[in-house]
Write a structure and sequence with these properties.
By secondary structure, the protein is mainly β. It is 11% helix and 30% strand. It comes from Microbacterium testaceum (Aureobacterium testaceum).
Length: 316
């Protein structure tokens, strides 16, 4: 049995793009509806996160996408397009009932696969998993005419063959900060507005930038507390004071970024350490303290910098 490669599931801070520039719906998002035919054809044993033993009655020839939740998890749900999820996948050949290919299983989340990285190979897989929860094991049957011919071989399938994908949702990150709004009494700070998907926009007051580092917690999440050693998954927007375009934006890149807190520029590291998953943090860094930001994030020189950071989760 061949194995699917482990994809780089996160975007390093150095990859934040130079571009211009809601709460999680988990409780209102019902789990995928089970398809009776698939439910009758498949079963799997083994814990989520370990290679399953899958029994698939063959031949099973789906004519449309079908879903069956084999194990129901209770973690964060997939509610938004582009939301980051790390998965393990076993691909079954429904013609023969045999395993075609699988990702690497184990406790190390860096060796899992990003769900969005699978989408070009298996169009419709992400949509089929909408509202599935972290900790779940979900079987998704895809008809052969929906699997690109040039991708089938890499999945261990014959051209035109359907596939059944047994997906373990190992980690589902928040799509955006989901904590409650916090009151901040500070004056002279930028204001933050948000698009429906949570993406922030920044507007500036008439005054000059503060001469010292300023931090405000705009939303306070109730998740894990970040330490210096935390491998944090974040959305970040960075803009020079008064500018109309950003110098860094994971939102515009289409994927969150990952970094160890202690390896961030000092002001960012200090602002995030002690914050909780689900929080949104506003940070202003004076122009004379941005040398590390210029190196790490290609921030402009001689400008005060403003960051808005959504803390989506951790890998450790």
């Amino acid at each position: 049995m061949r194995r699917l490669p482990a994809f780089v599931a996160v975007t390093a801070l150095a990859g934040f793009g130079l571009v211009g520039c809601s709460a999680s719906a988990g409780t209102s998002c019902p789990s995928p509806t089970a398809d009776p035919a698939l439910s009758a054809a498949i079963s799997a044993t083994g814990d989520v996160g370990t290679a399953p033993t899958v029994n698939l009655r063959s031949p099973y020839l789906p004519t449309q996408t079908a879903v069956d939740t084999l194990v129901q998890g209770d973690g964060e749900k997939l509610t938004e397009d582009g939301q980051l999820a790390l998965v393990n996948v076993t691909v079954m050949n429904p013609v023969t009932g045999e395993t075609a290919i699988a990702t690497q299983y184990g406790s190390d989340l860096t060796k899992t696969t990003s769900l969005t990285a699978l989408e070009p190979d298996v169009p419709g897989l992400t949509a089929a998993l909408k509202c599935a929860a972290e900790g779940s094991r979900v079987a998704v049957a895809i008809p052969g005419d929906q699997i690109p011919a040039d991708k089938a071989r890499g999945l261990g399938l014959a051209e035109g063959s359907p596939g059944v994908f047994v997906v373990d949702l190992r980690k589902v990150f928040l799509p955006a900060a989901d904590g409650p709004e916090q009151f901040n009494a500070g004056t002279g700070m930028p204001s933050v507005v948000r698009a429906p998907n949570g993406q922030p926009g920044i507007s500036f007051p008439q005054n000059d930038a503060p001469s010292d580092v300023r931090t405000e917690t705009l939303k306070k999440g109730d998740g894990a507390v970040l330490t210096a050693d935390s491998s944090a998954m974040i959305h970040l927007v960075g803009v020079a004071w008064g500018a109309k375009t950003t110098f860094a934006s994971t939102w515009q890149n289409g994927a969150p970024g990952q970094a160890t807190v202690s390896k961030l520029p000092p002001a960012l590291a200090s602002a995030l350490e002690g914050q909780t998953v689900g929080s949104q943090v506003l940070l202003v860094v004076p122009a004379d303290q941005t040398s590390a930001d210029q190196q790490a994030l290609k921030a402009p020189a001689d400008k005060a910098l403003v960051y808005v950071v959504d803390i989506l989760g951790t890998l450790n």
